[in-house]
Amino acid sequence: MAPEHANPHQIRALFSRAMSAMYREEVPAYGTLMELVRDVNSEVLSGAPEERARLEELGELERIDEERHGAIRLGTPRELFTMRRLFAVMGMHPVGYYDLSVAGVPVHSTAFRPLEEAALRRNPFRVFTSLLRLDLLDDAELRAAAAEVLDTREIYTTGCLELIDKAEADGGLSEADAERFVAEAVETFRWHAEANVPHALYQRLHDAHRLVADVVAFKGPHINHLTPRTLDIDRVQEMMPERGIAPKAVVEGPPTRTVPILLRQTSFKALDEPVSFPPSATNGETAITGRHTARFGEIEQRGIALTPAGQGLYDRLLAETRSRITPAADGSNADAYRATLAEVFTAFPDDLATLRKDGLGYFRYSATGKPCNDPSRGVDALIAEGCLRADPIIYEDFLPVSAAGIFQSNLGDGAAQAFVANPNRARFEEDLGAPVHDLFHRYAETEARSLAESRVALSRTLQKA
Ligand code: OOG
Ligand code: NI
Q1: Ligand 1: which residue has its CA nearest to atom 9?
Q2: Which of 39, 113, 193, 350 ranks highest by number of CB atoms within 10 Å?
């Protein structure tokens, strides 16, 4: 980045604010959810001065209510390839590969996000990005019809494509170009109330899978939700009905715990919206107004990132819970699901010391400033002596089973459908035009670096003493 260029993190901040403003205007219920989140966050903070001070020190307080992520669904490899280039302009890169076919959703996904901690702190906005997998549909004729529609649509404005080229050629954008770029880029994610296909084709796509209709029948990948951070997800879930919004049946992810792990998410159910369908050019079908559900609002609460061992334990316990009880979309067994989840997860240690000693979570180490006798000793001894401290590293990624739960609850009840698990990371990366960053690698690296730096700092205190 040359000095005359806008900082990519600044462009991302502009972009996430523009998306938020657009979405609040398009989906008023989302504005209501934002207000509720703000109210609950300030209630939590006024009752917890220590947490407030900690967040203030981290510089997180002023951005506490801002969006953490959004989600889109793309139709073709070409769209995905360009989306990677678009997000790179804003310092967002693909991290992780998520196969959602396991959970009956015909897509595979990645998350475009800032990589470094400092960048996440500047602005944490991420976009969960899915690519439709027409290859998972049985009906060959429908597959061909869908591919034809997708191949002829252009989801990017000419101005946006030009500015991506320019950013790549020059290694960045000027401030003025950055503003234009954000204005052009949000156009791709805008809602279009006019479908791209006649109603009969929409219906066939919809019958194959609601998600297929959501991707193929529209002019572009409308943002389907945005997600602010809450400090108390259970409280927001409980209060949504009071504010006139209908929550999904259960909170996805781990149960309520003393030490939060990974990611908990919930959403309000997608709106049923009017859509106008064009007449058919070939069979005399007339234009009609129909309906479509796709857009909703979500909230998230994050906890400590888990090591592969910790993630393995989480996956096993979640699978065990779900083998005992599957949450019903209508919420009829929500209490029983919550109780079973809590009971099964008693097997997951719930204090930081054990999580660390058992190698289940990632930690950031720092020297406390107290001189110590021998900095080369083991971590446990240094912590016991009070010269080293360990703080949890927060999970910044997503969870495939939770993502599937969010998809399902917003595609309408009963949309679940079985596909055979069928990951195809190589194909995804080929379409993307780049490998995805490994999910665990970054946390492990942060932990290792913090420990090495702490040992250096400790040996300095030793020399001074
Ligand atoms: C994406 C669902 C995944 C999350 O928070 O896990 C997601 C979608 O519905 O397109 O956003
Ligand atoms: Ni989401």
Answers
A1: 407
A2: 113
Residue extents of the structural domains in the chain: 8-303+398-432, 362-393+435-465
**Spacing, Cα 291 to ligand 2 middle (Å):** 23
pLDDT digits (tens, 9 = 90+) for 238-275: 999 999 999 999 999 999 999 999 999 999 988 899 99
Instruction: Judge whether residue 376 has pLDDT over 60.
Output: yes
262 within ligand 1 shell (Cβ under 6 A): no
CB 251 within 8 A of CB 233: yes
DSSP 279: P
Among protein residues, the one with the nearest Cα to ligand 1's atom 6 is 403
Q: Does the C-beta of 398 come closer than 6 Å to ligand 1?
A: yes
Concatenating the DSSP letter of every residue in 379-407 gives HHHHHHHTSEEEEEPBP-S--HHHHHHHH
- State how far the Cα of 102 lies from the Cα of 363, in Å rounded to an integer: 31
Distance (Å, rounded) from C-alpha 299 to C-alpha 394?
16
Q: How far is the CA of 300 from the centre of ligand 2 (A)?
A: 8
- Taking CA atoms only, the protein residue closest to ligand 1 atom 11 is 71
Over residues 139-176, the pLDDT tens digits come to 999 999 999 999 999 999 999 999 999 999 999 999 99
In tens, the pLDDT along 45-67 reads: 999 998 888 888 877 787 787 88
- Host H or E run for residue 288: strand 288-293
Does residue 215 have its Cβ closer than 6 Å to ligand 1?
Answer: no
pLDDT number for residue 443: 95
223 CA to centre of ligand 1 in angstroms: 11
Architecture per CATH, domain 8-303+398-432, reads as Roll (3.10)
